[in-house]
């Protein structure tokens, strides 16, 4: 039974394999054929029968009580984000009906706001597609042009990996954010296409995806090694776009008065070449409207 047909079992198994006997507070006895805890050990520590836990992992029982899930979460060391994800895998009310793919459209008001910002900013979709960006965002990172996908670029493009010195941490966050965003809506064709492509092309993506890490999107500092202005750290904030489900306005901003603020101002003032929406290079001033994205 695959992850697509038994999401609960796949999640429990992946998280069980990440907990060592020492972390669980039990003796490490005998030869272990697989990493992490054995099924019977999870059942014992959670206070449920081994047969019942086996049924959960094999997809034979998909309606455990909240009390059982809380006990299992305690044994598997699940934090709030991971426990919330666990609930989506068993909740009938949380299950999303299969739907035809819908086009993600940025509201006109959000495009006007994007064009007015003096910080690097862009609007991303549910699967980290770039739906619109301003000039300074593209000067900071040329791959933030409309039509790109951050996940694909981050895992498959070497120049993108060089731009982010903390690439390993960044990729961990992206994959955990994707898990949180998707929940149990794994039948979405766009999701299946993207995960399938990255799983085939990137060993690192395969390893991270198999861990079933879940993390909500939160503001965080991010380090970049820009080829023209050197290293700088910017605060990355994701804001919901009103009236557009799953869309986020992402803004990078420096600490006021910092060297990073000076470098960003330099990038904005000198008109460094940026990638336009048609793929050509142009020395665009920072306040220039993102015409292609606004059409």
UniProtKB/TrEMBL annotation:
<dbReference type="Pfam" id="PF17765">
    <property type="entry name" value="MLTR_LBD"/>
</dbReference>
<dbReference type="InterPro" id="IPR010982">
    <property type="entry name" value="Lambda_DNA-bd_dom_sf"/>
</dbReference>
<dbReference type="InterPro" id="IPR001387">
    <property type="entry name" value="Cro/C1-type_HTH"/>
</dbReference>
<dbReference type="Pfam" id="PF13560">
    <property type="entry name" value="HTH_31"/>
</dbReference>
<feature type="domain" description="HTH cro/C1-type">
    <location>
        <begin position="32"/>
        <end position="83"/>
    </location>
</feature>
<dbReference type="InterPro" id="IPR041413">
    <property type="entry name" value="MLTR_LBD"/>
</dbReference>
<protein>
    <submittedName>
        <fullName>Helix-turn-helix protein</fullName>
    </submittedName>
</protein>
<dbReference type="GO" id="GO:0003677">
    <property type="term" value="F:DNA binding"/>
</dbReference>
């Amino acid at each position: 039974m695959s992850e697509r047909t038994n999401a609960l079992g796949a999640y429990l198994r992946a998280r069980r394999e990440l907990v060592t006997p020492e972390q669980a507070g039990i003796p490490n006895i005998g030869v272990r054929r697989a990493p992490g805890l054995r099924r019977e050990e999870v059942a014992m520590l959670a206070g449920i029968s081994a047969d019942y836990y086996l049924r959960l992992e094999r997809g034979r029982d998909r309606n455990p009580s909240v009390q059982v899930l809380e006990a299992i979460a305690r044994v598997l060391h699940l934090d709030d984000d991971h426990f919330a994800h666990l609930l989506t895998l068993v909740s009938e009310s949380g299950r999303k009906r299969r739907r035809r793919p819908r086009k993600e459209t940025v509201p006109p008001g959000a495009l006007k706001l994007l064009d007015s910002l003096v910080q690097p900013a862009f609007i991303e979709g549910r699967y980290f597609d770039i739906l619109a960006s301003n000039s300074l965002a593209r000067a900071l990172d040329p791959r933030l042009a409309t039509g790109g996908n951050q996940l694909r670029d981050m895992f498959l493009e070497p120049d993108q990996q060089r731009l982010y010195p903390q690439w390993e941490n960044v990729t961990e966050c992206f994959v955990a954010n994707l898990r949180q965003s998707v929940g149990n809506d794994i039948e979405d064709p766009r999701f299946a296409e993207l995960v399938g492509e990255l799983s085939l092309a990137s060993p690192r993506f395969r390893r991270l995806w198999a861990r079933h890490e879940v993390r909500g999107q939160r503001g965080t500092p991010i380090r970049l090694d820009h080829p023209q202005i050197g290293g700088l750290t910017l605060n990355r904030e994701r804001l919901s776009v009103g009236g557009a489900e799953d869309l986020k306005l992402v803004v990078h901003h420096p600490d006021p008065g910092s060297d990073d603020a000076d470098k960003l101002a330099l990038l904005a003032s000198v008109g460094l070449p940026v990638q336009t929406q048609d793929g050509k290079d142009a020395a665009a001033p920072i306040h220039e409207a993102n015409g292609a994205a606004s059409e």
